[in-house]
Design goal:
The chain has 2 helices and no strands. The protein is mainly α. Helix 1 runs antiparallel to helix 2. It is flat and about 35 Å long. The two termini are 15 Å apart.
Length: 48
């Protein structure tokens, strides 16, 4: 369960950064964070 909570904490940090970049209209940062989220999700699926 602690691994899942750790994942959620990281996800929340990334989503907050994504919101901030979006609010600032920083499209490069938005794209970078989305790519990072996709990679993390894909890596998580491959770890199973």
């Amino acid at each position: 369960m602690s691994v899942f909570k750790s994942y959620l904490r990281q996800l929340i940090r990334q989503l907050k950064a994504l919101k901030k970049a979006s609010d600032e209209n920083n499209q490069e940062e938005v794209k970078r964070i989305i790519d990072e989220l996709l990679k993390d999700a894909q890596d998580g699926l491959e770890d199973d």
